[in-house]
Amino acid sequence: MARVLIVDDEPAIVELIHDVLEQAGYETYSCDDGQKAWELIQSSRPDLIITDVMLPSMDGYTLQNQIAQTEATSKIPVIVMSALVPAKTLFRNAKQVVGFMVKPFTGDELVQKVQEALGARPAAEPEKKPETGEGQGT
Description:
Layout: E1 3-7, H1 11-23, E2 27-31, H2 34-44, E3 48-52, H3 60-69, E4 78-82, E5 97-102, H4 107-117
Parallel strand pairs: 1-2, 1-3, 3-4, 4-5
């Protein structure tokens, strides 16, 4: 199961992203500040990072630069989100930034971006219910 780190200082946004991605079968965890996120990224190596631009202690732009400049983390894909459309231009040359989402966005848009970022690999296999044999002619 792919592990997604959500970095945003707005609890409502974190909860929304968490709920949507958990329903889609992804494991999520979160952080509300850029510096703490950097420490968490180094220790936990998520499969994908979704980060806001405006963050306390270290903004999203600086965070993605740290990720890119560190060999151990430079291959982790990043999706950037912001309410400010012009912020997208800051990230246009960042190789590991694989998506940009303008807030507000829908759950379907989020899941599509995550699937694209992870190479469309499925989040998790849906649980199969065991066949009971009821209703079958025996």
